[in-house]
From TrEMBL:
Residues 1-23 form the signal peptide. GO terms for molecular function: carbohydrate binding. It comes from the Bacteria. Keywords: Signal. Belongs to the bacterial solute-binding protein 2 family. This is Periplasmic binding protein domain-containing protein. One of its GO terms (cellular component) is cell envelope. It is found in: Cell envelope. InterPro entries: Peripla_BP_I, SBP_2_dom. Its main location: other. It comes from Eubacterium plexicaudatum ASF492. Residues 45-297 form the Periplasmic binding protein domain. Pfam families: Peripla_BP_4.
Length: 329
């Protein structure tokens, strides 16, 4: 992430979360609304999407009289563990956690010392989730990948062979795994010959994706579409094309998140498709679930609850040139 972008996110975060500081004297109190509760939201590493997620959580918390502290773990597991331990020791009622590494879920649960945890953005293994105790709120990432692959299949319906560049998020992130699985499963079922001419992890980074695609372009290999696990990486591909004198619109470039910059790129004909991930809705649902659990209630009545009671799903939405104006702010 570029320095000026980091500064911009930090400024916006300060404005959005300025009222969310810790109040040392409040523990579990209040009625069914959760009024007077303290909650901690620990984010793996703040970026544009996670800022939206935190903003949605903050809006819902404030509306219900809940004090929500949002902290950035800066992609350091030890930071996240320490943040959760301090919350558990200081009278917090629940934890909202965007896990840095989902394989640390057992350690994170132990650090919470019995407090309920609502995982967001990065989903632990099913065995580490528990109904009305350790739950996940998010969008079904496999569906985002399915939407991307189906868009390509529809646009390239006349082609029997499709050359795909696949640029993925962090190796151990659940969204990376889910979106990639959805892409490959949908392509495999198409009956077409799918060639993955380049596939690598750019870790959600615009700059890293740009560098990767610049190197790929130097190979001269044919490509029909570039599918990225998020918009930031797709925008890196757009920049690489521009630097190489290639019209980004001459190939299908796809992302996920429907960020403001991603939507603008679609409007300009530089990106073809993205998938709206409702960050605000995820944040709102996470606080709603956390409130129920902190009060010792069930989350069974929360909209989007799965049959097993472990997940709350907030649906993805398809975005292309035909409807992108609806998603632009």
């Amino acid at each position: 992430m570029k320095v000026n972008q980091k500064k911009r996110i930090a400024r916006v975060l300060a404005v959005c979360l300025g009222t969310a500081a810790i109040a040392c004297g409040c523990g579990k109190s209040g009625g069914e609304s959760g009024k007077g509760m303290k909650m901690l939201m620990t984010i793996s590493q703040m970026d544009t999407f996670r800022l939206t997620l935190a903003g949605g959580a903050q809006q819902t918390a404030e509306a219900n009289g809940i004090q929500l502290e949002v902290v950035d773990a800066e992609n350091v597991i030890e930071n996240q563990v320490d943040q959760i331990q301090k919350a558990a020791a200081n009278g917090y009622s629940a934890i909202l956690c965007g896990a840095i590494d989902v394989d640390t879920a057992v350690e994170l649960k132990a650090s919470a010392a019995g407090l309920p945890i609502v995982f967001v953005n990065s989903c632990p293994n099913d065995k580490n989730l528990e109904k009305d105790a350790y739950m996940y709120v998010g969008s079904n990432d496999a569906m985002a990948g399915e939407f991307q692959a189906q868009y390509v299949l529809d646009k390239l319906a006349s082609k029997d062979e499709i050359n795909v560049v696949l640029i993925k998020g962090p190796n151990r992130h659940s969204a990376t795994k889910g979106r990639t699985k959805g892409i490959k499963k949908t392509f495999a079922a198409s009956g077409k010959t799918i060639r993955y001419v380049f596939e690598d992890h750019a870790d959600w980074s615009t700059e890293k994706a740009e560098e990767m695609y610049e190197l790929f372009l130097q190979t001269g290999r044919e490509v029909d579409c570039v599918i990225c696990n998020n918009d930031a990486m797709a925008l890196g591909v757009v920049e690489a094309c521009k630097k190489a004198g290639i019209d980004p619109g001459s190939q299908l470039i796809l992302g996920v998140d429907a960020t403001a910059d991603g939507c603008k790129a679609i409007e300009n004909g530089e990106m073809a498709f993205t998938v709206y991930q409702p960050g605000t809705g995820q944040g709102q649902a996470a606080v709603e679930v956390a409130t129920a659990l902190a009060l010792g209630n069930s989350a069974k009545d929360v909209e989007g609850i799965a049959e097993d009671g472990k997940y709350v799903w907030v649906p993805f939405e398809k975005v292309d040139s035909s409807n992108v104006s609806q998603y632009m702010k």
